[in-house]
C-alpha cells in the first residue's frame, strides 16, 4: 500500500500534469494541513484516490464550513456517513455540496476506511483505522489553535471510538493524522511550533503505527523528517512524503 502524504507547501512535483507519472501506484492521500483547498481539489481530481484532509493554522478560509466559528453564519459542513467508510455528524447539506472538494474532512474523527481496506499479516480483512486532529498550539488566538488542555479534551472525546476499534479489530488505530507535532518530537522551541504534550500521551496509550504531521517546514536537509517514538513512526509530511506499508497485504474491494 502506497500513501502520499502532503502538507504546508504546494509541491511542483505534484501540482503539474505529470503528477500521476511522478507518483505511480498511490492508494491513499493524506493532507496534513496548511494547504489551499484548490490544491487539495487538484490532488483529488488528478489522482482519483481516496483523499483525507485536516486543517492547520493557516489557509483557514473554509474552516467555518466544518466547525462552528463565532461571528459567522455558516454551519459545520461535516460529511455524512456513507457505506461506513467514514464517521461524522452535524450535517449541513448545502455547505457539504459547496465545500466537499472530493476529499473527506478527518478533523477530530475516528475513521474506518473500508475503501482502502487491507489485511495485516495475512489476517482477516479490516478497514484502515485513521484518526485526524486539526490545528496547532495556541500562540496568537487565531482560528484552529488550541491550548494544551483544549487539545487533550478533544482527544479524550475520541476515546470511545478507539475502544470500539480495539474491540472490533484488535487495535486502536493505524494512522494518526495531525498538523502539529508531539512535544519534543520534530517540534521547535518558538511559541507557534511547540508540540502538544497530549500527543505524546496519545501515542503511548493508543500506539498508532504511524503519525503523520505537518507544521514544521524542512528548509534544512539536516532536520529530521522520520523518527521513532514509543513504537510509532512519526513522519513530517512537509511538501510530500510517500509511505509504503510493506507488512500489510492490500485486499481488493
Per DSSP, what share of the residues sits in E-state strands of 2 or more residues?
15-25%
Radius of gyration: 17 Å
Shape, per Cα inertia axes: globular
Structural class: alpha/beta
User: Unreliable segments (pLDDT under 50, ≥5 consecutive)?
Assistant: 78-98
Helix content: 10-25%
How far apart lie the N and C ends?
A: 14 Å
H and E order: EHEHEHEEEEEHHEHEEEEE
DSSP helix count?
6
Give, in spatial order, the strands making up the sheet with the most strands. 11-12-10-9-6-5-14
Oligomer: single chain
Number of strands: 14
The pLDDT mean sits at 87
- Report the biggest beta sheet as strand number plus sense, adding barrel if it closes: 7 strands, mixed
How would you characterize this protein structure?
The chain has helices spanning 19-22, 37-47, 93-99, 148-156, 159-169, 197-206, and strands spanning 2-6, 28-31, 51-53, 104-105, 109-120, 125-133, 136-137, 145-146, 175-178, 210-213, 226-229, 232-236, 241-244, 248-250. It is an alpha/beta fold and 253 residues long. Helix 4 packs parallel to helix 6. It is built from six helices and 14 strands. 39% of the residues are buried. The strands form three sheets. Strands 11-12-10-9-6-5-14 form a seven-stranded mixed sheet. Strands 4-3-2-1-13 form a five-stranded mixed sheet, with helices on one face.
